[in-house]
Design brief:
Length: about 350
């Protein structure tokens, strides 16, 4: 198996068998490594069916496993995983979500509320911030402000939503294959499977990519060969959050003026072209310079239940990023086909 040298975080989308949850997988991993499980909130957004509320911001329950003070992996929900679940199933005991129409409210919840608290009391600290008392009705707990406007609701988690499990590793600097295979071995032992909409994401540390010229080369290569790579790796056609970059991106990066920009100016230009994380190759965190996730993300891989194909894909993209950032970058511009690109990357590795 290939040896990786880049710092990479892996996200593998899985689904638990009925009667098993992502909490069970976290517990198994913690037992294997002699670590601890920390229950935490995981924030996501989903379209709302309410006409006056376009987006529901969600907090669901996730589980982080740590070895001493070192995070190893988190096991969280992914709202794109839907088709394996029985939406009519009764809520599982102890599982809930918190919804609001403003992501800032949920960040307040994360700061002030305890994810280990039960549904009935979890929002008490939030209500205290607004000098109100939570209201309970039909199993749900609602917080309103002092003008009686809804702030947030905690409700039982519907439709087997404890079963989806995105396994998110901490950034791995060495022994990538070993760490990932051990996590997937734990998942297979509990009967976890590939979801219908499942995917694997690779987060490459973007430190070495902080150059307008490097990003321009990367965009050029993936704009021309990205679809062929997607086909080669067997991207899951059921994934709902893939797609191309906006055409404004290659229009920007192909100019010599962009290549000559200082990095901060290049980032500012990238932020103006309509980037989204929900695409085949996510540059948004690079453009934003996000400190907590300063990564280039590859999102085209299907779910794999063993590490080998994930590591092989990561090795190819590691070689590609290294070539874009190195003296071989000019050779990549001369690759007219995927086979030419692969040959060039083999020659540089």
């Amino acid at each position: 198996m290939r040896v990786l040298t880049w710092k990479i975080g892996f996200e593998v989308e899985l689904v638990a068998p009925r009667g098993v949850s992502r909490a069970d997988l976290a517990a198994r991993v913690a037992q294997r490594i002699g670590g601890k499980v920390h229950r935490r909130f995981h924030q996501q957004a989903e379209p709302s069916k309410a006409s006056n509320v376009p987006i529901f911001e969600n907090l669901t329950l996730g589980f982080q496993v740590s070895e001493g003070d070192k995070p190893v992996a988190s096991f969280v929900d992914d709202l794109t995983l839907q088709r394996d679940l029985d939406r009519e199933a009764s809520p599982a005991d102890g599982w809930y979500r918190i919804v609001a129409d403003d992501a800032r409210i949920l960040r307040l919840v994360c700061q002030h509320c305890d994810p280990a608290a039960p549904l009935e009391t979890v929002l008490n600290p939030l209500a205290a911030l607004f000098a109100t008392t939570p209201q309970t009705n039909a199993g749900m707990v609602r917080v309103r402000d002092d003008e009686d406007r809804s702030v947030a609701i905690a409700a039982p988690l519907p439709g087997e939503r404890e079963r989806p499990c995105e396994t998110v590793t901490a950034p791995i600097e060495r022994d990538h294959a070993k760490v990932l295979e051990e996590l997937l071995t734990d998942a297979r032992a509990l009967g976890f499977a590939a979801p219908i909409e499942g995917a694997t994401h690779l987060h490459f540390d973007a430190t070495a990519l902080q150059s307008a010229s490097t990003i321009a080369t990367l965009v050029d290569v993936l704009w021309r060969h990205g679809d062929a790579l997607k086909a080669m790796f067997g991207a899951n056609p059921n994934c709902v959050r893939l797609g191309s970059w906006p055409e404004a991106l290659p229009q920007l990066t192909k100019s010599q003026q962009f290549r000559a920009l200082r990095w901060r100016d290049a980032q500012a230009a990238l932020r103006k072209v309509g980037l989204s994380k929900f695409c085949d190759y996510n540059l948004l965190n690079v453009a934003l310079g996000t400190q907590t996730k300063h990564t280039f993300e590859v999102r085209i891989l299907p779910t794999h239940l063993t590490a080998a194909p994930i590591i092989e894909a990561a090795a190819l993209f590691e070689a590609l990023l290294g070539a874009c950032a190195g003296p071989q970058a000019r050779q990549l511009a001369e690759c007219d086909s995927l086979s030419d690109l692969l040959a060039a990357l083999r020659a540089t590795s």
